[in-house]
Amino acid sequence: MHTVFRPNPALHSACLGLYFPAGPVYETAQTLGISHLVEHLFFRLLPGLPQKQLYSDLAKLGATLRGKTGHDFMELLLTVSPENLPQACVLFLKLFEPFEADESAFLREKAVVCKQISYAPFPFYQFVQAQYFRARKRALPIMGTHESVEGVTCEQACRWQRRLLGQDSVWVVATGCFPLALWRAFLHRLEAVEHPTPQPLRAAAQIPRGFAARTARDDHIIPGTGDVSDVMLCFDVEPDANPYAVDLLCSILGGGDGSRLSMSLREERAWTDEIFSYVEEFHFARCLCMETSVDAADLLQSLWQIFYVLIDARENLTETDRLESLCFFTKNQSARLDDAARYNEDIGLFCAAKGEEPPSLAETAARYAAVSLQTLRETAQCLLRPEALSIYVTNDSRCLKRSALRAVLSQCRDSLSVKF
Fold first, then answer.
1. What is the pLDDT of residues 219-233, one digit of tens each?
2. I need a surface site. Which of 41, 68, 206, 217 has the fewest CB within 10 A?
3. Please, which residues bridge with residue 74 across strands?
4. Is the pLDDT of residue 420 over 60?
5. Cβ atoms within 10 A of the Cβ of 41, count?
6. CA nearest neighbour of 228 among 17, 400, 56
7. H or E stretch including 52?
8. From CA 374, how far away is CA 372, in angstroms rounded?
9. Are the C-beta atoms of residues 29 and 148 closer than 8 Å to each other?
10. pTM for the complete prediction?
């Protein structure tokens, strides 16, 4: 059990977060979805605190408790006003106790999860995730399947909860207006909780097949309907890449209204309403993603313009580019303290993934500030190349023939090979 204390007395809320490895990466085909089910059961099977009472107690405190399961993590995050924090801490400690094996409550929650599986949409992003990580556990659905969830017993779920909480990488994070004296009292009570015997979970490496050795076979045209096409470009980021330079490059390319892609596609040509650019992390590596939606009639010219912008950025990054993004990662680091819940989650997910506490905000800002224009240019040269690229596009073949789109994707990919 590890703890992180990052308070901000100026806020009017406090957060306690619980984070640990979980999800499909650690599950078997027979238990796929059990972590997500256990997340639900934290609201159903706490000993001496049935669901209705839990919700009532939270409501009386004006507190929220939310859960989230990813492919390789679980989080439980409590947010409350500072004056009700002592009572909320008592509720939070119940999360560490073994589930109460209530078969009736278990079956009701399992039915809810099966409904979620039935009603869940299959969005563009989820298709991309499945293709990008094909043949890896990160391609599997977080909620599992009807068959796998129906096969989980109450006893299995209770055992899995204990195993998840028995890992070495279990983190408790406190942020917001959290008094030091109360934090120390909470830690004292946490130490008194009987923790399960450590049973570390093991996960195979989740590096996608063909990582950083991409070809046209990694480009996918997804059948669509209607007049809008979704576009996503994924660039593999190798483990030795400077992560701070990658974040800055991501911002320069598609982060915000003044980014290169946004200015070119949205502001100058009105081909899209939004550009999203972000870096996704997974075991041992990262992926820089850029996505947008355009009218099907504008798809081909939008693709060409995207690649023109990428090539120009790779060859002609300037000090102005660096400075226009730098402040968001340096001077604005302290602004992360203003959102206790988001800051808590950022810390907790970092801890669960890397097994260590993240650097301070001041240290993080210093690392971004240390990224020189030369480092940025070298990062762009290494990253924006065809061997790192996977392309995903939705297309209605009634609007544009698949063969014509495939030919343009191939030409766009080849254009990244050109050196100027």
1. 999 998 889 999 999
2. 217
3. 20, 69
4. no
5. 26
6. 400
7. helix 51-61
8. 5
9. yes
10. 0.91
Between helices 299-316 and 373-383, what is the axis angle to 10°? 140
- Say which residues have a Cβ less than 8 Å from residue 365's Cβ, sequence separation at least 6: 329, 330, 331, 333
CA proximity to 174, closest of 330, 8, 338, 42: 8
The number of CA neighbours under 13 Å toward the Cβ of 195 is 15
Nearest to 348 by CA among 10, 8, 21: 21
Choose among 57, 144, 131: nearest CA to 94. Answer: 57
Contact partners, residue 349, CB within 8 Å, separation at least 6: 19, 73, 75
Give residue 312's Cα distance to chain centre: 29
When pLDDT is averaged across residues 314-333 and rounded to a whole number, the result is 93
Helix (H, G, I), strand (E, B) or coil at 89: helix
What whole-number distance in Å separates Cα of residue 192 and Cα of residue 180? Answer: 19
pLDDT over 60 (residue 32): yes
Q: Are strands 285-295 and 228-237 parallel, antiparallel or unpaired?
A: antiparallel
Count Cβ atoms below 10 Å from residue 9 Cβ, excluding itself: 11
Beta strands across the sheet bearing 2-7 = 2-7, 171-176, 14-20, 74-80, 64-69
Q: Which residues pair with 415 in a beta bridge?
A: none
CB atoms within 10 A of CB 156: 15
270 within 8 A of 305, measured Cβ to Cβ: no
Q: Residue 51 to residues 42, 106, 114, 134: CA-CA distances in angstroms?
A: 9, 11, 19, 38
CA neighbor of 271 nearest in space, from 244, 249, 298: 298
Q: Residue 75 in contact with residue 67, Cβ under 8 Å?
A: yes
What is the pLDDT of the chain when averaged over all its residues?
92
- The number of residues making up the chain comes to 420
